Amino acid sequence: MNLKKEPLFPQSAGAASDAGHVCGHDPYRLCRPAEQLPRPCRALDAGIRAHKRTGRQQCFVTRETFKCGECGKATSFEVFRVPEYTRNGQPALSRNVKYSDGTMVDGVGKGDTMDGIPGKDATYTGYHYTKAVCETCGGINTNMSKSEYGYLKNVYWLYDCAAAFTQELDETVSYEYTDDTYHTITTKGGTYCAFCYGTNHTVSRKLERHSMVTEVLPQPANGRFATVEKCSLCDYARYDYTAAKVVIAELLRRGGRQPHTITVSDLSEAGVRTSIRYGNSAESCTMTSAPNYTEEGQYMVYYEITYTCDGVDMTENGVANVWLRDDTTDENGNCDCGCSNPNCGCQNKNCNGNCCTDKGCGENHHFILLDRTKAGCITLGYDRYLCTECGKIEKRDYVDSLGHAWQSIVIRDATCETDGKQLEFCSRCGEMKQTATPKGEHSYEVYTVAATCTSPGYTVRECSACGDRHIEDITAALPHNYESHVIAATCEGGGKTIHRCDGCGSSFVTDYTDALGHSWDEGTLVTNATCTGEGVMEYRCTRCGYHRLDADPADGHIPRRSCYLHGAPALHPVRRCAGKRPGTRLQERSDCTHLHRDGLHHQHLLPVRRH
Fold it and tell me: What's the confidence (pLDDT) of residue 597?
């Protein structure tokens, strides 16, 4: 067969006609009104090559070479093909329906094509409807036998799709989060016929464990590293946090006795390595230890802190101040000169306690305000007064301490699994402390799983932070929704009824029936028997069209005989040795009055009844 493929959607390849049109042998129009067309001619598979243009549905057209029964030539035929989709997924031929107008195999009876809408209520059967038009004489379906019902009729007839033209659809795989352990893999694929583009879609789903990968993300603004474990296939992720925080407190001290510098507290959690460099400017942080100061004054200490967690670094830069003042008061503001007077304010480390001895003023000092000391977080504020006569200095007008001005930095947020951690430090004096915050409440997300015929329904409450899961409101599984699909018995195959659940696909079979057996006609003579050769009879099944050939036994030789009643010795040759005439058969009749010498009757030639 010479096969030439044409473009998939030729401009002239329509299948529908105007209502009431009688088209003769126009290959692009049907002889029946549009509303009577078989649905396979109007609805193609939307998933593969569906194409609509101003209300006209396209067929798939090829040009092939056949012998035409009308013009008698081996010539080119234009062939139209449309895939068959039925509501039960079984081809119409399983119900002995062969033609698109419902005509059965015998060309007489009518049946149901059970056509449907592809993708909604019908599936591809592995068959297609086809119609061929001779491009020489315009005869429709003249590549068929003249005895076929569809010969010279503008109908489509059903034909199976050859396995050689079956192609695989490209598979698509998607991943959808199910829970903290599994995701659902959905694989979509199928097969299609490259000749008619009829398509069978397949969808499979299965649970698979998450494919987790770990990534460490620095979060310097929050003073921590975030360890993110996420599935490389779906959108599931879980987070853990590791504190990475060094607190550097500024210093306010009296100088002159020992070196002073900033205070460093590393509050980082296990798994974090810290490295601190100091310097006198932001661009030169190269020292491994902070500089010390002894002289009165204000100093700026620059620092650069590098945090490392699982090979990931982040850097923090800053500056801290060191204030040193030269006085003789202790940390509580008491004079340390040795006079033992709690109100002494001489602040002279060399007075040896002589500052508070009476120098002649007695109780009549002439005090003037010398200076004021502000209250601290835990120290009193006061004013110092100087006697202009004797030089005595006293502290007066005490002000209560202010208390710490705490500021909080969250190191780790509290979750439903772990306590939180925060750092509190005083913005005035630099004192710091670490506190823990209690665990938080679960953050539940609620979703409902509907009941099916294979599993119960339930409501799931799942914590988005820790995965704590509760199942509530369990409902019973639904009953199966079985639909019955009757497969009629054929001549060679038995019938049965398949009950299939639309929900889960489970099925069972009942009502088996035996095969009908062939219904043979009376037979047609193909070749006469001769004296030495067998004849041939053809028998055809009136139900399915199957045919068989049977042998007619050879007749054998019969000698010539004479009849006494016609005169002696009148001979009546029967000529059986020469064979019978076409269309006749020999029969010995007992009512014949012509007797032979051997007492036998004539063998008469009788016409054969044709069926």
Answer: 42
Residue-by-residue DSSP string for 253-290: EE-SSS-B--EEEE-PPTT-EEEEEEESSTT---BSS-
**DSSP 3-state assignment of 222?**
helix
d(CA 157, CA 393): 124
Distance CA 8, CA 62 (A): 9
Cβ pair 460, 469 in contact under 8 A: yes
Reading phi first (left if > 0) and then psi (alpha if -120 to 50, else beta), residue 340 is in: left
Q: Where do we find the tokens 């315009």?
A: 138
**Tokens describing residue 584:** 């006749």
E strand or H helix at 394: strand 393-399
Peptide bond into 220 cis (omega under 30): no
Sheet containing strand 469-475, strands side by side: 444-449, 457-463, 469-475
- β-strands 312-325, 251-254: how paired? parallel
Please answer whether residues 81 and 195 qualify as being in contact, where contact means their C-beta atoms are separated by less than 8 angstroms: yes
**Three-class SS of residue 34?**
helix
Handedness of CA 8, 9, 10, 16 (dihedral sign): positive
Rg (CA), the chain: 54
Cβ-based neighbours of 568, under 8 Å, separated by 6 or more: none
CA gap 70, 85 in Å, rounded? 32
Pairwise CA distance, residues 149 & 140, whole Å: 12
Furthest-apart CA atoms within the chain: distance in Å: 204
346-364 burial string, b = 16+ CB within 10 Å, else e? bbbeebeeebbeeeeeeee
User: Rounded CA gap, 533 and 317, in Å?
Assistant: 115
Q: Which of 57-71, 461-475, 493-507, 582-596 has the lowest mean pLDDT?
A: 582-596
> How many residues would you count in the chain?
611
Q: Check pLDDT > 60 for residue 32.
A: no
Report phi then psi at 576, rounded to 5. -70, -25
Residue 260 and residue 439 in contact, taking contact as beta carbons nearer than 8 Å? no
Decide: 140 and 66 in contact? Cβ < 8 Å.
no
- Return the amino acid letter for 161: C
**CB under 8 Å, gap of 24 or more: what pairs does 148-151 form?**
148/107, 149/98, 149/99, 149/103, 149/107, 150/99, 151/69
Verdict on whether the full-model pTM lies above 0.70: no
Cα 489 from Cα 493, distance rounded (Å): 6
Angle, alpha carbons 601-606-611 (nearest 5°):
145
In sequence order, what DSSP letters do the residues of 359-372 get, joined into one string?
-S-TT---EEEEEE
- Output the CA torsion sign for 239, 242, 244, 245: positive
Residue 545 burial (CB count, 10 A):
16
Segment 420-437 shows an average pLDDT of 78
CA dist 219 and 241 (Å) reads 10
- Look up residue 445 and give its two tokens: 């997300």
Task: Count each helix (H run) and each strand (E run) in the chain, helices first.
Answer: 0, 39
Q: What is the pLDDT of residues 575-599, one digit of tens each?
A: 333 334 444 444 444 445 444 444 4
